[in-house]
Design a protein that fits this description.
It comes from Fibrisoma montanum. It holds the Pfam family Pentapeptide. InterPro entries: 5peptide_repeat (IPR001646). This protein has about 190 residues and is largely without helices or strands. The chain has a domain of about 80 residues. It has 2 helices and 6 strands, in the order E-E-E-H-E-E-E-H. A two-stranded antiparallel sheet has the order 1-3. A two-stranded antiparallel sheet has the order 2-4. The N and C termini lie far apart (about 70 Å).
């Protein structure tokens, strides 16, 4: 049984119990470890335990400039959920599973990712909006990205703009640029 998507849901009907409430509001603490998305008959009095959720008017209204109360979501299984036209500026995610998640048409400026496993991740069409995009600005320039202490071995960069990129104290063994070993290029440079 998956997550019941109705605004008022009995805790026992969820794939896991949850703490889902605007900050400062009463909530129900999770009784099942995170990421275990099966129904467990742990709550004999589930009919008396209800998950606090947003009013349906808030859940379905279009995004506006008016900020809504922040949510404090803990230890809940909401896999295969969809977020469309959502403002998550300054959101904080910790100890989350995003396996197979897709971010599309997203502004991730000033995003910070720490302690993440990105094996198999696919980044494509990253940068400022292209000419055919409604938010295209020919004068806009993307802020530089920074990678510190990252495991990128075996990764591939194809048709990427690496203009002005700097590598400092990086392991370059086996690294190739257009099929040429960088170690060999550096060795030739050192002989000059």
């Amino acid at each position: 049984m998956g997550l019941n998507r109705h605004p008022s849901t009995k805790l026992g009907d969820l794939c896991t119990s949850a703490n889902l409430a605007p900050l400062g509001q009463p909530s129900i603490k999770c009784l099942i470890p995170p990421f275990i998305c099966r129904v467990y008959p742990l709550l004999t009095s589930a009919k008396h335990a209800y998950l606090y959720s947003l009013k349906s008017s808030l859940m379905h209204q279009p995004m506006t400039d008016q900020p809504q109360p922040p949510l404090n979501i803990r230890e809940v299984c909401i896999e295969e959920s969809t977020f469309l036209s959502v403002n998550l500026n300054r959101a904080y995610f910790e100890d989350v599973s995003l396996i197979g998640a897709t971010l599309r048409n997203a502004n991730l400026s000033d995003l910070e990712i720490e302690g993440a496993q990105l094996g198999g991740a696919y980044f494509h069409q990253i940068g400022m909006p292209p000419k055919d995009h409604p938010h295209y600005d020919p004068l806009a320039k993307q802020q530089p990205l920074r990678f510190d202490d990252c495991e990128l071995s075996g990764s591939t960069f194809v048709n990427c703009n690496l203009e002005g990129v700097e590598l400092t104290n990086c392991l370059l063994k086996g690294m190739r640029i257009n099929g040429i070993l960088v170690e060999e290029l550096l060795a030739l440079y050192g002989q000059q």
